[in-house]
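Structure first, sequence second, as always.
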């Protein structure tokens, strides 16, 4: 099981993503958040097939769901869902990702 916490920034919402391998190619996604838009994504992405994780943005089920439900296109949650699914399926190692703003 893989757990990822996302602090999304300006909106003030955080999301706890849990990705659990169901079998060799299927991962179950659960989300905990006060953001209704993120929670609405679960209708389409609660079960993901490994082969669909690596498709482009237009056909990827996570990004398609995000396009339907999220108003903020820069929301980091879809990316984090995909990374959590990859780790749960042993397709990559759990390495933290950062975005750092440099003020000059």
């Amino acid at each position: 099981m893989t757990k990822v916490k996302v602090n999304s920034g300006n909106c003030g919402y955080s999301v706890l993503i849990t990705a659990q391998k169901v079998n060799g190619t299927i991962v179950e996604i659960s989300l905990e958040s006060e953001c209704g838009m993120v929670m609405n994504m679960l209708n389409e992405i609660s079960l993901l097939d490994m082969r669909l994780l690596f498709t482009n943005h237009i056909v990827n089920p996570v990004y398609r769901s995000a396009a339907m439900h999220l108003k903020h296109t820069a929301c980091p949650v879809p990316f984090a869902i995909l990374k959590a699914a990859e780790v749960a399926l042993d397709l990559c190692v759990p390495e933290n990702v950062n975005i750092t703003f440099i003020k000059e």
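Margin note: The mean pLDDT is 95.
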